[in-house]
Amino acid sequence: MSPRGRVVRGGRAGGGEVGGGIGGEVGAPRSARVVAGVPAGVGVALLVLPLLALVVRTPWARAPEVLADAAVGQALRLSLGCAAAATGLCLLVGLPLAWLLARARGGAAATVRALVSVPLVLPPVVGGVALLMLLGRRGLLGRPLDLAFGVTVPFTTAAVVLAQAFVALPFLVVAVEGALRAADRRHEEVAATLGASPGVVARRVTLPLVAPGVLSGTVLCLARALGEFGATITFAGSLPGVTRTLPLGVYLALESDPDAALVLSVLLLVVSLAVLLVLRHRWLR
Amino acid sequence: MSPHDPGRRRHDRVVAAPVLAVRAAAAVAVAGLAACAGAGDAAAPAGDPVAAPASPELAGTVTVLAAASLTDAMAELETAFESRHPSVDVVVSLAGSSALAAQVLAGAPADVLVTASTATMQPVVDAELVEDLPVVLASNTLEIAVPPDDPGAVTGLADLADPGRTVALCAPEVPCGAASAELFALVGLVPAPDTLENDVRAALTKVRLGEVDAALVYRTDVIAAGDEVRGVPVPEAAQVVTEYPAAVLADAPSPAAARAFLDLLTSADGQDVLRDGGFLVADAATS
Prior knowledge:
The complex is a heterodimer. By secondary structure, chain A is mainly α. Chain A contains 13 helices and no strands. Chain A has two domains: 26-57, no CATH class; 62-284, MetI-like (MetI-like fold), CATH 1.10.3720. The chains are: A mainly alpha, B alpha/beta. Chain A: Its main location: membrane.
């Protein structure tokens, strides 16, 4: 239980604000800022201009008619419901996982950490294929499940939730683990020496300490689940009301009614931004 | 049973929103046989006068946007064309017909467009983005595909209306789905799909993976999948024929080579390739 040296990443909420002005930390030479400003501007343009174009090109006159379509409300409700369920699932398994990873040492932990991060860099469609190989009717687990209980997972709403959890879980784990590593362990140790049980320490000390990290991880997880497409269409298929979430609806609308697809894209953009802004705002204050 | 056959293509152009035409299968089959009758000799590809009118001058890249159901036929036609015109590189981009049409409407630089329905070609024609009116290359019909072990014991369309079976269909928004919907309406059945896929190959993949008991796909897809799926013929499907119109695009970067490629598609050799892939070919080059 000796306190080990850890990289402390705390204090970022205070520093680094534009114009925050603790001279030596923030101030960079003017020339350096100009040099950095050009590629930085290109970066911002790369991220913002396409979304701006999307908004500009959207046929707003058709928006009421498109949004009034019962199928859109259905897809939106399904998206929000599945993303919430997937986020709940991720919290349930992701918090303990992040805690273990943050506290563990050695090769096993490093291996698990690397494996857990794989979906971050994996094309989601590959994730969908992998889920099929495990849980499909001919999958490693899916076949015995089907034979023993007659349960098949693909093409169900549960498959959507699983696909979303698969791609979103790493975001939560990485964020929470980072927060746990950055937190000062002495608080926990003091609480323990004062007689608090491990459960009380976790609830009263550790969780409040890392709450911002948990919240930001949850937001990222939820946003990623909301936008999930590749794994969902591969593993869960696309049936209105059952598995056709809003991103799948956008892709299909592109085939038949591109104008409607633009309206739906903006809707998805607004919902995702709302999630980010509302939750992040609460966290920052 | 086909009084308006001679004026068919003009007819397709004028009708603003053509639905997939229900046409007597006999007419198509007879036309197909007529085309095949003169194409029995598959030898001497280099000597085809139709496909290579200006072969010495052709060079550059021909970009062909083709419907996903043409995947295998296009690979073969690409090879055939490139062997005749070694300085031309044919690049085939395969996707759902509606997506391809949308790409052309958005100004994608392409030379030839081949879609899996006249309905998806129409917006491109209306926008005057084709050099000449589209030529119908071939047609296709639907067939049920099941995994080789046929876990759902599927015998016909009625089994695709059974909620107890796992069924993949194309979404009604894409050509194969529109044709499927028409077929089900024709036989008076309400299908019970478990997933509505975005293109026909995605539906076929679900069968190949054994995730569904059956999917309604094109006959050509069943043939292309070989031993991985089994076809269950649907007699009524002969009444729902999907046509494949092709056109050289008005803004084609390589118009001459594009015309030569279209000539190959409509030549006896090109039609042979399509017929081998399971397509119904008509004598589109001269009709």
